[in-house]
Write a structure and sequence with these properties.
With 156 residues, this protein is an alpha+beta fold. It has helices at 12-15, 17-22, 36-45, 116-120, 144-155, and strands at residues 5-10, 27-29, 51-56, 63-76, 100-115, 139-142. It has one domain (5-148): ph1033 like domains (ph1033 like fold, Roll). Strands 2-5-4-3-1-6 form a six-stranded mixed beta sheet.
Length: 156
């Protein structure tokens, strides 16, 4: 299967790209996704080796800050079963796993943030999902041409 490309959003005060780099083995599980479409992308389509644009949201400088790689395919999100977790889901159970996660590994930080405004102003990115009105998914597919352009912008 061909490599796929994704964008994953995280608030830097919750878990930044730097936090990912500093995690054991520069790896973490991507838990807490509670949107069915985003869950389906992770559960059904993300594969080991897929690349991820790491996007900081809800901060002063919103945009893509680097790249990660999917290093473990989907498995049940344990936080859904933990009543002390912010991501607890009382409708989930061991028998009825509703939520899934993948593991990602830090690959690179950009020299600079590729801001949302900059992406919106770049004609080559006009059809990129993240810049479309109303696109709020925290996990979304990215076309290779868009992935490559954002990486080029962030590393130039």
């Amino acid at each position: 299967m061909a490599k796929q490309y994704w964008l994953m959003k995280s608030e830097p005060h919750v878990f930044s790209l730097e936090d990912l780099k500093n995690a054991p083995n520069s790896t973490t599980h991507w838990d807490g996704v509670r949107n069915y479409q985003a869950r389906n992308f992770m559960r059904d389509q993300m594969k080991i080796g897929d690349l991820v644009l790491y996007y900081h949201s809800n901060c002063d400088e919103i945009g893509v800050v680097g790249v990660a790689e999917v290093c473990k395919e989907s498995y049940p999100d344990h936080t859904a079963l933990d009543p002390d977790s912010h991501y607890f889901d009382p409708k989930s159970s061991q028998e009825n796993q509703r939520w899934f996660m993948v593991d990602i590994k830090w690959e690179q930080a950009f020299k600079r943030t590729v801001t949302l405004q900059e992406m919106k102003a770049t004609p080559e990115l006009e059809s990129m999902r993240v810049i479309q009105r109303g696109m709020r998914l925290s996990v979304q597919p990215v076309e290779k041409v868009h992935f490559d352009k954002v990486v080029e912008m962030g590393t130039a």
